[in-house]
Design goal:
Elements (H helix, E strand, L loop, with lengths): L1 H16 L8 H12 L6 E8 L2 E9 L13 E3 L4 H14 L28 H5 L11 H5 L4 H7 L22 H10 L3 H10 L11 H5 L8 E4 L2 E6 L10 H4 L2 E3 H11 L9 H8 L3 E2 L1 H11 L3 E6 L4 E5 L3 E10 L2 E8 L4 E7 L8 H10 L23
Antiparallel strand pairs: 1-2, 1-12, 3-6, 4-5, 7-8, 8-9, 9-10, 10-11, 11-12
Length: 394
């Protein structure tokens, strides 16, 4: 208990100072984030930074909803696909305890997953977590969004045609990935959500971390979802959809930016009692190349992220070709999320926002460029209306 409150007190002092002896210019960053939050495609935004292992920045910008309350460091958002790293972390804990192995066949567990050519009898837990199931990307997400039962959808995946060799290529999934929640429940005898809270959120002090709609709304300080419309300037309110809460391993987590930053600290190895070095090494190790992701990054962000790969629930890159970084991005209707960190420097960035704008993705590049002393670039696309790959920041 004493250790927890000591760390908390230090974090408060660092946040109040809003300064660092390190390379990140927080005053400049804050100014740019205020400009970003005022753009017509934004509603609310929360950003957190850990530098040299310490939480040094946690700020909210904009509003929880249009003409609503200001976003602060305790406003709760949805994590979307950042949730996949939670599934990998919990599965990694069970692997370390000997309750399962990443090499176990999926068919050894009571899951609803079926794959073409009876591939579920050969697919491993590792194949699920690394998206190596050999089926079309995002298989049957639309059926999930239409309200169909995820277990029924998973059974129907067996009727698809294989698009590549099982275990050899990366094809990103949501419904299929959530077989991980069934595996965890089968091994532990408890609901997946309960296991995540007990094994991860509680040890990390993540009081706002939840995996359902009620958890998102319970504090009252939560960001409402917004999305863009081609027929309307600026974002408009959209429904709070339950679809991805029904696949909790793939997209079910909620929290504040402060708790997401604490989760990032754990992924840096700063909570070894919850996530040991062996667990982190296993889930962060590149398992499969992601060429489609590499092409996307090259096109949009000037090749800052190179050698794109996927581990277990995590993306792995070389930043500017020199620095190993780990991260993920996520989007569900009306929300987006992002995490990127350098595990060697214990430094990284997290962001949550409640619109479909892509501008905030540039935050990670602006921050990590400071960390690595690279030329400043308008990755946020807020200067002179220029493209992120072309506009220098002075």
């Amino acid at each position: 208990m004493f250790r927890f409150f000591s760390v908390f007190a230090i974090s408060i002092l660092l946040l109040s100072a809003k300064a660092s002896s390190g390379p990140i210019d927080y005053e400049r960053l804050d100014t740019r984030l205020k400009i970003l939050a005022a753009k017509p495609d934004m509603v609310g935004l929360a950003v957190g930074i850990v530098e040299n292992g310490e939480l040094t920045f946690a700020e909210g910008y904009g509003e929880t909803h249009l003409d609503g309350l200001p976003v602060d460091e305790n406003t709760v958002f949805r994590w979307a696909s950042l949730s996949k790293s939670v599934a990998a972390s919990v599965t990694g804990q069970l692997n370390e305890e000997g309750l399962l192995s990443f090499d176990d066949r999926v068919s050894e567990f009571d899951t609803s997953l079926r794959l073409p050519n009876a591939g579920h009898t050969r697919a491993t837990v590792a194949d699920v977590l690394a998206h190596r199931l050999g089926i079309v990307p995002n298989a049957y997400d639309l059926r999930l969004e239409d309200g169909r039962d995820p277990a029924v959808i998973r059974r129907s995946l067996g009727a698809l045609k294989a698009t590549c060799t099982l275990g050899d290529c990366h094809t990103y999934q949501n419904v299929a990935f959530d077989a991980a929640s069934e595996i965890v429940a089968n091994v532990t005898g408890y609901d997946y959500r309960a296991v995540v809270v007990e094994n991860l959120f509680e040890p990390l002090g993540m009081s706002s971390g939840t995996l359902d709609r009620l958890g998102l709304k319970r504090t009252g300080n939560w960001a409402r979802p917004y999305r863009q419309s081609r027929r309307q300037i600026g974002p408009r309110p959209t429904d709070l959809n339950d679809s991805y809460y029904r696949v909790p391993a793939a997209g079910g987590v909620n929290s504040s930016i402060r708790d997401l930053a604490e989760y990032m600290r754990a992924q840096m190895g700063l909570y070894p009692e919850a996530l040991s070095p062996d667990v982190l090494a296993a889930i962060h190790e590149p398992r499969v190349r992601t060429l489609r992701e590499q092409r996307s990054q090259n096109r949009r962000y000037g090749g800052r992220l190179k050698n794109a790969s996927y581990g277990y629930g995590w993306r792995v890159y070389d930043y500017a070709g020199e620095h190993r970084v780990i991260g993920h991005r996520g989007a569900v209707r009306g929300y987006r999320a992002m995490i990127l960190f350098d595990p060697e420097r214990d430094t990284g960035i997290v962001a949550l926002w409640n619109s479909s704008s892509r501008r905030p993705v540039g935050i990670q590049y602006e921050v990590m460029d400071m960390v690595y002393d690279l030329p400043r670039t308008d990755w946020l696309q807020i200067d002179l209306g220029g493209s992120a790959s072309a506009v220098a920041v002075r």
